[in-house]
Amino acid sequence: REPSNQTTHLSMAWHSSGSTNADLVANLCKNNLIKSPKVKEAMQNVDRKHYIGDSPKSAAYRDTPLSIGNNATISAPHMHAWCLELMELKSGNRVLDVGSGSGYLTACMAHIVGQEGHVYGVEHVPDLVKRSRSNIAIDRPDLKNWTIVEGDGRNGVSDYAPYDAIHVGAAASEVPRELLLQLHPDGGRLIIPVGKTEQALYMFVRNHENVQQHRITGVRYVPLTDLKSQLKITDQ
């Protein structure tokens, strides 16, 4: 299924907030942001309240990005839903989540790919690596098909490649070549926001040596940077 080249209208996204996780997912479905049963089931079974760091618990089910500390955010639920739909994950897939942050999307993807699949998260902030592992263990102790490693996600994680899908949770100034090389050559998908001041969400589909590019829509994400830049560490 090929996406439309036309920018999708997202005005209804901001009307998807709920008072519970079930409400949030129901509203995302009503506004046609969740379309497939597997994405609906995943987001119903991964409770966002466990992944929002020190943000107020009352904000857990708002359809808006939230701070999770370390100059990082958890994306708005409508963006999570959209990216999950674009990846078209299947049982048994191997997936990479770059900038896995709170671990929320890693858990959603692990739910979809099932025990025959595996999701690898890569995060360069040590505190987020530790907390995301704890978040998933608390929320979904039954999930065993995920691994979160510490590292620079711009380089991917070549040890476990190739991946059926790669998701990037921050905006790259340009598409990291390493990520394209780590896609499965037979239809691997990369979902990534690209740009500096003007950003857009793109999907790249690899077919052996050829890569198709699809612009999905304009977006606004935090930048995909090195660790020192993210934590605003200066050399003394």
From TrEMBL:
Source domain of life: Eukaryota
InterPro entries: PCMT, SAM-dependent_MTases_sf
One term under GO cellular component: cytoplasm
Name of the protein this chain belongs to: Protein-L-isoaspartate O-methyltransferase
Keywords per UniProt: Cytoplasm, Methyltransferase, S-adenosyl-L-methionine, Transferase
Species in which this protein is naturally found: Lotharella globosa
GO MF terms, alphabetically ordered: protein-L-isoaspartate (D-aspartate) O-methyltransferase activity
Gene3D superfamilies reported in the protein's UniProt record: Vaccinia Virus protein VP39
Matches recorded under Pfam families: PCMT
Catalytically driven reaction(s): [protein]-L-isoaspartate + S-adenosyl-L-methionine = [protein]-L-isoaspartate alpha-methyl ester + S-adenosyl-L-homocysteine
Compartment(s): Cytoplasm
A GO BP annotation: methylation
Annotated family: Belongs to the methyltransferase superfamily. L-isoaspartyl/D-aspartyl protein methyltransferase family.
Entry EC no(s): 2.1.1.77
